[in-house]
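Reviewers of the previous submission asked for a worked example of the structure-prediction workflow described in the proposal, so we include one complete record here. The input consisted solely of the amino acid sequence. No template or homolog information was supplied to the procedure at any stage.
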Amino acid sequence: MNFKSRLSSIRLARSWNSGTGRPNRKWAAPARWTLWSLGYFVVFSTSLSAADEKTDFFETRIRPLIVEHCLECHGDEGPEANLRLTSREHLLAPAESGQSALNLDQPAASQLLSALRYDGELQMPPAGKLSDEEIAAFEKWVLDGAPWPATAAPVRASGLVISAADRAHWSFRPVESPAVPTVAEADWVRTPIDAFVLAKLEQAGLQPSPAADRRTLLRRLTYDLTGLPPTNEELAAFLADESPHAYEQAVERLLASPRYGERWGRHWLDIARYADTKDGVLMFGADRMRPFAYTYRDYVIRALNEDIPYDQFIREQLAADLIQPSVEPWRLGALGFLTLGRMFDNNVHDIIDDQIDTTTRGFLGLTISCARCHDHKFDPVPITDYYSLHGVFANCEVPMELPLIEDPNATEAGRKFEEEIRAKREELRNFVDQQHALQTEDARQRVGAYLAHALSTPPDPMETAVFFRSLTPDDFRPQITVRWRKLLAARLRLDDPVFGPAADFLQQSAAATSDANGAPGGGPNHKAVGELAEGELWPQILESWASRPAGTAAGEVNPLLLEQLRSSQVSTPAELGQAYGAAILAVYRQTLPSEPAAAAATTEPGAATEPAVASSAAADSPEFKQLLELLVGPANPTWFPKSQTHRYTSRGETDAYHGKVVELDRLAAQNPAAPARAMVVRDSEQPYTPRVFLRGNPTNFGAEVPRQFVSILAPERSPFGAGSGRLDLAASIASPGNPLTARVIVNRIWMGHFVEPLVSTPSDFGLRSERPLHAELLDYLAAELPRHGWSLKWLHRELVLSNTYRQASQVEPSTAERASAIDPENRLFWRMNRRRLEVEALRDTLLSVSGKLNLQMYGRPEAGAAAPDSTRRTVYGLVDRQGLPVLFRNFDFASPDQSIERRPQTVVPQQALFALNSPFMIARSSDLATQVLAQTGTATERITWLYQRVLQRPPTEDEQAACAEFLADVAPEAEPSRWSQLAQVLLASNELLYVD
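From that input alone, the workflow returned the following structure tokens.
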């Protein structure tokens, strides 16, 4: 397409209806042709292949069902009927009956399906038929040929043994610095990087490409390090500097620029899934804002500009509040790494999963979150490793009041805001204090009801459901019920001095039920036993225990408890719970002031009359304290930290609490003078001992696991120390002995400069990752990074100073044809890769060349990135998790919902429409036209000025002639519009959009 046609395209596009986005009818057809002419209208999409879809279906739908329902009887060890369901080969092999479970010739007639459908005598699983949906999943899988991924390990019921082969995987081996290779063309080697690259090229019979010209090189370097084009002054100075160190000086200047942190900070924000908003379902406007999210973004930019060592960067993002000596206040903003993810409708386990996923993908390049429900399908990561990390983040919480990292008295407006909001913060604190005292006391006073409920009813899944909210104050608090069940499970033993009589009663009453029914009893936790004849069992049990020696040692009974129980009438587990509750409550009430104690006194079913107040000597006795500790102290089931009060209140109070919190956020979001606060976490008051959730179900507990590091990375590990373990986790990740951390960050930064990474999966270095072609180069840089103080600026410098980086991207056709035949994907880096500007660099460039870029750093986000009057750098634009700006979506901005290893790169019509119709683009074109018209000189000189300003080069003779023809014979009043159209052509050109 010739230049005149491109100019006409802009004129046609401006005739479109900018209000509706629709073209006027008479221009509809030409406008569609225009999109093609600009080269934007290339649409492609990616989708899973059929094989990938079947693999995904097997892993997500079939494998979990086999593990849950089949392997107990049909695993590898002693399979019933000689049928093993641990691999496809075993399913095709004849079983004891002589038939195979699968019939690939007639899949619908497979014995596996008939057994699952309960069609005949063989009915599997015997414990109960699967749901229709689960059977349908098996039918689909079998009818598809029962695909079993070739890369998948055999199905295992549980337990993953890390093998020597696992540890021998390239990414899990210790990082060792290889020797720099010797090459034939030693003169080309400027840094060790070049030696590694050239060695591979020589092995393949290739040569590196010539160096890029100086203009191209400075443009590439400036974009890579700052995300902006060089100014004409910078380019002119560089081209005029004939000293041998001109390039090195340019590198140092750009690394020292504050623009460096803004550029590379945005790269890290992709990994950290940064957003300025929450994802609440019914949150709108200011209510959806996280008013201080920007402090994390500002921390990242400042940390990179100050070249904080990468190992320290890791520690601060995971545990800045725990580092000693204490860090500077602004560094507390680093903890936004843990707090700025999605809210998942307050599903705490999903929030923790997101923290685990972001941490392990981001720093380690491991998909640990895939082990949430079972051992990792591909990598040597057992489910116990996942819950070890789960315990770290479960022992953290967001404080009710975030710490200030900015002096509120620094400005009068800030001081005034803090004064105005202080009353509302105090109101929230008082509300929490009141509800904490109320809910705690209610749980103590209702101890009998809780015990009766726990002893007479089976566990309810809703007791551990994260969405549960009590509707009325009379509802049992599910968390307290669970803790009573756990306490009873641990202490209902005959040798327990408090619950021994209860265990005795339950065992004997269960035996009596068994005798009466001629079958074993169902157990007291599954159904209540019937009333025994004349209620004689309970008095006999108490008399038997009373005859034992006094004292509180194991096997003896607490005499104070025994005295309280004597007047109770018990014939069912529920009455047993009420009797115990009354006895425990009687002791507790004696510790209260007389007036509240009298007011709180109640008579519970099965309880004795109001007990006498104990003497001070009795209150100090071991027996008294032994009963009191069941209701007082952090180890008792009724205790919960004040910070978690909102999880224990009824729906009305919970909504009131969240309303007060949202109001504080709203006020801070609406007032730009609100002093900055860090989005931190802190260690919980109550330590949490992690346990495996069987099949990821939080209602189904497995074994306890210590909080410790990932086993494949720490063969000789030990449990983390006191507190949450975040600081220990950060130290383990940042350790020079960790084989992944340095490799992962080196790979990410290499990708930022060379477009393609050394390891093709930047966030997955597990067993499915291919050993990189340049594995030795990766290890060399990974080994050198800690030796240079984990300085990321050192790493950038090392990369961009290399001759590998300085190669041209465009080479002679004959050379390119030969090299492409040998290495079509340029994995050997025989030339530089061309790159398209990301949305941030594109938008910032439009602002920069039009003279409107606002370089103000830090602070609150700016909404409306595509608005004509929005002029700050794009990194400071508002990232709305539920409503990304259209400009961001059209140009492949990273999704803030999860950690992103690399952005997609699409070419879609909306990008062309932005170039043609966007008010932002038209405004920038008009800005340029105004500046052009302010230049003195001829039209030719103005055209040259415009080209130099936008493309950092003069126009060619053909371009000069075409522009002059376009501008000829224009009326004075139409001249600004014509210059604006010409400017828009340059701003929409591929030459601006791509970096060679």
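Residues 408-433+644-675 form one domain. We consider this example representative of the routine output the project will generate in years two and three.
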